[in-house]
């Protein structure tokens, strides 16, 4: 936990600017609070980062870790712009500008930075305040107290659901909703937007959520309100106690029952508050909050207006003396039981309570005791604060210098990125022009005959939008015919889209471990795709339904299938340009041919990814529950790392024999169940008990390493997952271990025996990846060079992959059998799997 000290005000995290802020997310939680020192006017925090509004420049300054937020002062910033307020969403920050000229006071300028948000906005009418949600923002108009929201409405619907004809005193956004406190005597909280259930389509009981939608705010007047991911909390006007509503995760800590709160901030699944009853020391509740916050913080922001009725000026909070500003906190509501009001709340002090005469005797000495302890405590706090400010300043200096150095080198690399984007733009039209080259056309009649009139007996499978039939063509070729289901009109549209995507992609891709498309038929309303027939069905059937008459796959076969599937996906990501993102990697899409080799199938949802994997596509989530990358379904950004997540789930499925979502178990989500066990070192508990454990210790070690690779693939953040080529290399190594890496005297197994790569294609050889070419040729040359690679691609051998990876600047020295330490996540996976022994290196060199 990090504690930052600043000068002195009241709601933040997701939401608005306050005297306290939290950052949340995968990297853990961080609490920041304004104390003494006058460095910031207020704080706000998002996913992995916190920003403060600097006192001297009135500009935002961010720190922490978020790839979409430029740390330091966000850029670009309009010249001489000064800001009144800042507010952070998950991956962006917005700031409300100070009105430049008096005559333009009826306009609001809001500048935003970060994921999909970097823009300046001008609104007619002056905003009193702004608030940022996950992927949207809202402003509260000063004059009519109405709310206006903008941004991505698909996941939150806040824009369309904003209440009309309602006056708000204050607003605060949560993840996918906004709450406001009414103006005047009706100070009830009203929340609108998407609830957890509507937004995520998650099953609340099974996913461990309890509670009701956030629009179920209690009907009591509130002082303020904050929003978390799916919950909101408010401070009740009647007694200043905290009340929370909406969804919360089971087993999360409830808010303090009796304490009165002054300021609050919400993280994703937790909330923190400042409590006068605890000497202004913050307390947090919920799930995953920062523990042990040792110091008192300011209970509010500095304001220039005098404290209104019901508020008093908090003496300990230091605002700039020259500014004439102050921190106003609400007067306490009543004296506790056993005490009486000795003096009422005044503009400078809270109401004073004294003990009742009957209990006064013994308690008066008790009261003196804490007073005598107060001085040493105050001195200790000041010394601690001083030391802290010194060390924070020193760290900030080092950090800023380090960042400046990095920015200058990033400037150079950005030029390269722009060139690689040019590749994507250039390549797409060419892709369109290429059209279907290899697929053969069939007549409906031909396929009807081949499948015995699409009889029930010849049906081998059924998907969401299609049925699959086994058929025999006139020349005796056994094929699988996928026929789109044409029931509901919505399905027709979807299946038609999937048909064309699959047809388009498969007719261009060619790899030993991708399912081969032989032809298609589009006649009237019928759309049919013809594939090679996969005699051994899908991996899903083998793992979960023990195919009729099918043999049980042992560990070597399972891992071989994992390696082959990984190679197929690696080809899609690294050797096609632009990369193809499959979007639906799962065990029912890994088909098994006659020789028990794996083929990745079902490209209906696939998309052409950006040539530069650093700039994600903004796509509405599609895929299969349990395999879906959480980053993709929450934030809608899609990269090849979404396939890596799904592949990680597949690996866990292969290791455990459990389904991705298996309702037979208490913890039905495979990731939630397996990852903690693997991290705790109990890999054996995850392994499928129906298989005989590997005989040798090396085999057990290989499975352990695969489990670790799976854990890395299912990391919450895409950028922290390894790339597919790293995953493949790691799995190949594990397979070699599992098989007992041969000594030099042993015969080397031919590739096709190990990986079934007898279908290696020899034409149009090019194994360069997009990123590789960007470093060597200019954009135009590169596109011309890349285009033919769509037509055919070789099955990629490890030795080729190693060369390409090294030229990416991520060289790991594997060719020499030595893993060089580095900061790249992929390298980390290679390290996990360990350097190859000389025998293994030889084995790998000959077999992969
Ligand atoms: N080429 C093939 N050879 C043999 N069986 C196949 C072939 N293609 C598909 N199948 C079988 O048909 C089933 C359905 O395949 P399909 O791709 O239509 O849907 P799915 O991927 O299982 O589900 P969804 O479309 O909902 O993602 C597969 O799980 C598999 O068992």
TrEMBL record:
<dbReference type="GO" id="GO:0004674">
    <property type="term" value="F:protein serine/threonine kinase activity"/>
</dbReference>
<dbReference type="InterPro" id="IPR000408">
    <property type="entry name" value="Reg_chr_condens"/>
</dbReference>
<keyword id="KW-0217">Developmental protein</keyword>
<dbReference type="InterPro" id="IPR011009">
    <property type="entry name" value="Kinase-like_dom_sf"/>
</dbReference>
<dbReference type="Pfam" id="PF07714">
    <property type="entry name" value="PK_Tyr_Ser-Thr"/>
</dbReference>
<dbReference type="GO" id="GO:0032585">
    <property type="term" value="C:multivesicular body membrane"/>
</dbReference>
<keyword id="KW-1133">Transmembrane helix</keyword>
<feature type="disulfide bond">
    <location>
        <begin position="335"/>
        <end position="353"/>
    </location>
</feature>
<keyword id="KW-0677">Repeat</keyword>
<feature type="binding site">
    <location>
        <position position="482"/>
    </location>
    <ligand>
        <name>ATP</name>
    </ligand>
</feature>
<keyword id="KW-0967">Endosome</keyword>
<keyword id="KW-0812">Transmembrane</keyword>
<keyword id="KW-0675">Receptor</keyword>
<feature type="transmembrane region" description="Helical">
    <location>
        <begin position="375"/>
        <end position="400"/>
    </location>
</feature>
<dbReference type="InterPro" id="IPR009091">
    <property type="entry name" value="RCC1/BLIP-II"/>
</dbReference>
<dbReference type="InterPro" id="IPR001245">
    <property type="entry name" value="Ser-Thr/Tyr_kinase_cat_dom"/>
</dbReference>
<dbReference type="InterPro" id="IPR008271">
    <property type="entry name" value="Ser/Thr_kinase_AS"/>
</dbReference>
<keyword id="KW-0418">Kinase</keyword>
<keyword id="KW-0547">Nucleotide-binding</keyword>
<dbReference type="InterPro" id="IPR017441">
    <property type="entry name" value="Protein_kinase_ATP_BS"/>
</dbReference>
<keyword id="KW-0808">Transferase</keyword>
<dbReference type="GO" id="GO:0005524">
    <property type="term" value="F:ATP binding"/>
</dbReference>
<keyword id="KW-0732">Signal</keyword>
<keyword id="KW-1003">Cell membrane</keyword>
<feature type="repeat" description="RCC1">
    <location>
        <begin position="58"/>
        <end position="99"/>
    </location>
</feature>
<keyword id="KW-0472">Membrane</keyword>
<keyword id="KW-1015">Disulfide bond</keyword>
<keyword id="KW-0067">ATP-binding</keyword>
<feature type="domain" description="Protein kinase">
    <location>
        <begin position="454"/>
        <end position="735"/>
    </location>
</feature>
<feature type="domain" description="TNFR-Cys">
    <location>
        <begin position="306"/>
        <end position="353"/>
    </location>
</feature>
<keyword id="KW-0325">Glycoprotein</keyword>
<protein>
    <recommendedName>
        <fullName>non-specific serine/threonine protein kinase</fullName>
        <ecNumber>2.7.11.1</ecNumber>
    </recommendedName>
</protein>
<dbReference type="GO" id="GO:0005886">
    <property type="term" value="C:plasma membrane"/>
</dbReference>
<feature type="repeat" description="TNFR-Cys">
    <location>
        <begin position="306"/>
        <end position="353"/>
    </location>
</feature>
<keyword id="KW-0723">Serine/threonine-protein kinase</keyword>
<dbReference type="InterPro" id="IPR001368">
    <property type="entry name" value="TNFR/NGFR_Cys_rich_reg"/>
</dbReference>
<dbReference type="InterPro" id="IPR000719">
    <property type="entry name" value="Prot_kinase_dom"/>
</dbReference>
């Amino acid at each position: 936990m990090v504690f930052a000290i600043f000068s002195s005000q009241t709601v933040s995290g997701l939401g608005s600017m306050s005297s306290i802020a939290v950052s949340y997310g995968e990297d853990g939680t961080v609490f920041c609070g304004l104390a003494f020192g006058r460095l910031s006017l207020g704080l706000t925090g998002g996913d992995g980062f916190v920003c403060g509004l600097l006192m001297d420049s009135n500009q935002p300054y961010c720190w922490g870790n978020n790839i979409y937020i430029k740390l330091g002062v966000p850029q670009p910033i309009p010249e001489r712009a000064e800001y009144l307020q800042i507010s952070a969403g998950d991956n962006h920050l917005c700031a409300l500008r100070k009105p430049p000229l008096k005559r333009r006071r009826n306009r609001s300028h809001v500048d935003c930075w970060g994921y999909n948000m970097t823009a300046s906005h001008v609104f007619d009418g002056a905003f009193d305040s702004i608030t940022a949600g996950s992927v949207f923002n809202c402003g509260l108009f000063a004059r009519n107290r109405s709310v206006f929201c903008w941004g991505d409405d698909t996941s939150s619907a806040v824009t369309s659901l904003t209440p009309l004809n309602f006056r708000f005193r204050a607003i605060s956004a949560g993840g996918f909703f906004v709450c406001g406190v009414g103006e005047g005597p009706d100070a009830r909280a009203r929340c609108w937007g998407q609830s957890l259930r509507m937004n995520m389509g998650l099953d609340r009981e099974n996913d461990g959520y309890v509670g009701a939608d956030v629009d179920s705010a209690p009907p009591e007047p509130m002082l303020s309100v904050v929003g978390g991911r799916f919950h909101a909390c408010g401070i009740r006007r009647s007694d200043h106690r905290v009340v929370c509503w909406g969804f919360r995760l089971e087993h999360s800590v409830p808010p303090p029952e009796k304490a009165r709160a002054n300021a609050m901030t919400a993280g994703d699944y937790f909330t923190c508050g400042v409590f006068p009853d605890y000497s202004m020391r913050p307390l947090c509740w919920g799930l995953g909050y920062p523990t042990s916050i040792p110091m008192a913080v300011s209970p509010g922001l500095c304001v220039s207006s005098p404290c209104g009725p019901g508020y008093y000026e908090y003496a300990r909070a230091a605002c700039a003396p020259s500014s004439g500003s102050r921190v106003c906190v609400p007067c306490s509501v009543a004296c506790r039981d056993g005490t009486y009001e000795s003096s009422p709340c005044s503009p400078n002090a809270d109401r004073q309570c004294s003990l009742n005469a009957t209990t006064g005797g013994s308690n008066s000495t008790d009261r003196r005791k804490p007073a005598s302890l107060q001085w040493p405590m105050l001195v200790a706090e000041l010394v601690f604060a001083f030391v802290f400010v010194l060390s924070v300043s020193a760290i900030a200096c080092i950090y800023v210098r380090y960042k400046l150095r990095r920015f200058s080198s990033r400037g150079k690399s950005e030029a390269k990125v722009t060139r690689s984007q040019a590749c994507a733009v250039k390549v797409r039209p060419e892709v369109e022009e290429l059209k279907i080259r290899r697929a053969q056309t069939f007549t409906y009649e031909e396929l009807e005959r081949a499948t015995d009139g699409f009889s029930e007996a010849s049906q081998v499978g059924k998907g969401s939008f299609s049925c699959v039939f086994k058929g025999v063509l006139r020349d005796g070729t056994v094929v699988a015919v996928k026929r789109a289901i044409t029931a509901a009109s919505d399905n027709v549209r979807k299946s038609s889209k999937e048909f064309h995507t699959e047809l388009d992609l498969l007719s261009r891709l060619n790899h030993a471990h991708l399912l081969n498309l032989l032809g298609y038929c589009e006649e009237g309303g019928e759309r049919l795709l013809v594939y090679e027939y996969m005699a051994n069905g899908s991996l899903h059937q083998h793992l979960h339904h023990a195919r009729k008459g099918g043999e049980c796959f042992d560990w070597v076969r399972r891992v071989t299938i994992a390696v082959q599937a990984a190679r197929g996906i690696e080809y899609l990501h690294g050797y096609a340009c632009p990369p193809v993102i499959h979007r639906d990697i799962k065990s029912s899409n890994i088909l098994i041919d006659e020789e028990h080799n794996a083929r990745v199938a079902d490209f209906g949802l696939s998309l052409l990814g950006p040539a530069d994997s650093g700039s994600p596509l903004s796509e509405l989530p599609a895929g299969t529950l349990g395999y879906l990358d959480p980053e993709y379904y929450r934030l809608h950004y899609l990269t090849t790392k979404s396939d890596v997540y799904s592949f990680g789930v597949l690996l866990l499925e292969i290791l455990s024999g459990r389904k991705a979502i298996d309702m037979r178990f208490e913890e039905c989500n495979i990731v939630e169940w397996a990852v903690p066990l693997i991290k705790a070192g109990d890999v054996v508990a995850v392994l499928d008990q129906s298989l005989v454990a590997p005989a040798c210790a090396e085999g057990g070690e290989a499975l352990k390493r695969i489990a670790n690779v799976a854990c890395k693939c299912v990391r919450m953040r895409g950028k922290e997952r390894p790339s597919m080529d790293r995953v493949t290399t790691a799995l190949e190594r594990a397979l070699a271990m599992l098989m007992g890496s041969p000594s030099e005297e042993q015969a080397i197994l031919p590739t096709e025996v190990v990986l079934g790569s007898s279908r290696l294609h020899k034409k149009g050889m090019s194994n360069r990846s997009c990123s590789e070419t960007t470093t060597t040729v200019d954009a135009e040359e590169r596109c011309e060079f890349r285009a033919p690679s769509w037509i055919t691609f070789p099955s990629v051998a490890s030795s080729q992959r190693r060369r390409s990876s090294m030229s990416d600047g991520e060289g790991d020295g594997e060719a020499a059998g030595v893993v060089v330490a580095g900061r790249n996540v992929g390298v980390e996976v290679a390290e996990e799997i360990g350097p190859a022994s000389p025998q293994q290196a030889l084995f790998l060199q000959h077999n992969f």
